[in-house]
UniProtKB/TrEMBL annotation:
Belongs to the bacterial luciferase oxidoreductase family. Gene3D superfamilies: Luciferase-like domain (3.20.20.30). This is Luciferase-like domain-containing protein. The keyword Oxidoreductase applies. Keywords: Flavoprotein, Monooxygenase, Oxidoreductase. One of its GO terms (cellular component) is cytosol. One of its GO terms (molecular function) is monooxygenase activity. It holds the Pfam family Bac_luciferase. The lineage of its organism: Bacteria, Pseudomonadati, Pseudomonadota, Alphaproteobacteria, Hyphomicrobiales. It comes from Ciceribacter naphthalenivorans. The keyword Flavoprotein applies. Residues 19-359 form the Luciferase-like domain. SUPFAM superfamilies: Bacterial luciferase-like.
Length: 423
């Protein structure tokens, strides 16, 4: 089974600092502390056998509960002190991005990490970020409690699809052109008459006019083997789209009825690509997982970690809708107790967590779990011990061995990668 970790990262300002100081997200002391604590966790996860680590994209977080402007750049940072763990995004927000630059950045990360990159794409739910960064695209956010959800969702999906098509085309082709409603690659009538282009990249031009572009470098991995992940998924439409693309949706809800509808939607479309795919396959699942010596201790660690981040920040964006039971009306309790009672947070002793995990894995045919680890305001030493107990005690108890995916390089690679050469 594959385990990956989702990290925001959140500021490593602690609870009293987050309450008493203005603009903690801009404080360099806290961000340096954040980098140290996250590096400790990432190095540990690699040693424990986690398959990947992934970062989110959100902007302007002076509040400090998310400081994660650029997940690809964070991946380049993590690549420098790791060697095996894969590095990705959960996710790059495509409606607000230039897809050509995203493709270039992904390819560079792939080389920096020696083929450990995977791509994660999302549509964006924070209006402050999406509409500011994506203003030239006319981008809009989409979130569960938006009163104009249908209109904004349609606009958001349209922008997402074009950006995705451009990225996919650039990664899978040496030269590429595209004409869409929002993006034209390259624009019409760009004069380019350089003799070296005509000699070494002749497919890019016709006469003296640029007709195609290509990114350089392109990926180190064979592009047909690069995984795409679509995180925080609740929508059957997104599940079906992921199945059509062969992507991994990472489902956000622990509620049985929601989960089953998502898995049904994915499977009904996935069998068109692979008649042998089983229900539940090729789908990941988010959870908060905390292990300690007692149930009470684990609960308190989780409450101070992701419980603090979720209830203090994410509830505002409708995250608790992922915990709503069928037929339930009114607000969902915005507490860590609710996260535990409804199955999103799995916390307790080795025995408690093993029992709950085994039930979830068996019920939904889970192949991939993605713990959202609340590093930052959470106690890092206790979270490190929780990860150790999870891998060394809980997983063996339920017969789970961790799998790390290996990269497949492009056939053009003829020499050792950069780190395997003398420095």
């Amino acid at each position: 089974m594959r385990f990956g970790a989702f990290l925001l990262p959140a500021s490593a300002a602690k609870h009293d600092e987050l309450k008493n100081e203005k603009y903690p997200g801009a404080n360099p002391t806290y961000y340096q502390r954040t980098l140290n604590e996250h590096a400790r966790v990432i190095k540990q996860l690699e040693d424990l056998g986690f398959d990947f680590v992934a970062f989110s994209e959100h902007h302007f977080h002076l509040e400090g509960l998310e400081i994660s402007n650029n997940p690809i750049l964070l991946g380049a940072w993590a690549a420098g002190f790791t060697k095996r763990i894969r590095i990705g995004q959960m996710a790059t927000v495509l409606p607000a991005r230039n897809p050509i630059l995203v493709a270039e950045d992904l390819a560079m990360l792939d080389h920096f990490s020696e083929g450990r990159m995977f791509a994660g794409f999302a549509r964006g739910y924070q209006s402050r970020h999406v509409t500011t960064i994506g203003q030239k695209n006319g981008a809009v956010a989409t979130f569960a409690t938006d009163p104009d959800y249908a209109t904004n969702d349609a606009r958001n999906r349209e922008l997402f699809q074009e950006a995705y098509d451009v990225i996919k085309g650039l990664l899978n082709n040496t030269t590429f052109s595209y004409k869409g409603k929002h993006w034209q690659v390259p624009p019409d009538n760009v004069k380019w008459d350089h003799p070296k282009t005509k000699l070494l990249a002749p497919d890019m031009v016709e006469g003296d006019i640029l007709k195609k572009i290509g990114i350089a470098p392109n990926t180190l991995q064979d592009p047909s083997t690069i995984e795409v992940m679509v995180p925080f998924t609740l929508s059957p439409n997104t599940m079906r789209w992921s199945a059509q693309e062969g992507a991994w949706p990472i489902v956000f809800s622990p509620i049985d009825e929601i989960l089953r509808s998502c898995l049904d939607a994915y499977h009904s479309e996935a069998v068109k690509r692979d008649p042998n795919i089983k229900w539940g396959q090729n789908v990941g699942h988010f959870r908060d997982i905390v292990v300690a010596d007692t149930d009470e201790e684990a609960f308190n660690i989780g409450k101070d970690a992701l419980g603090y981040i979720w209830t203090g920040w994410h509830d505002h964006f409708g995250f608790n809708e992922a915990l709503r039971r069928p037929g339930e009306t009114g607000p969902i309790p915005n507490t860590y107790e609710s996260m535990v009672d409804r199955g999103y947070a799995i916390c307790g002793t080795v025995d408690t967590v093993a029992r709950k995990l085994e039930k979830a894995i068996t019920t939904y045919g889970m192949e991939m779990l993605v713990p959202w680890i609340g590093v930052g305001p959470g106690p890092v030493d206790k979270l490190l011990r929780s990860n150790e107990l999870l891998v060394e005690k809980v997983l063996p108890k339920i017969g789970i061995k961790l799998e790390q995916r290996k990269p497949t390089f492009r056939k053009e690679l003829r020499e050792p990668t950069w780190r395997d050469r003398p420095l």
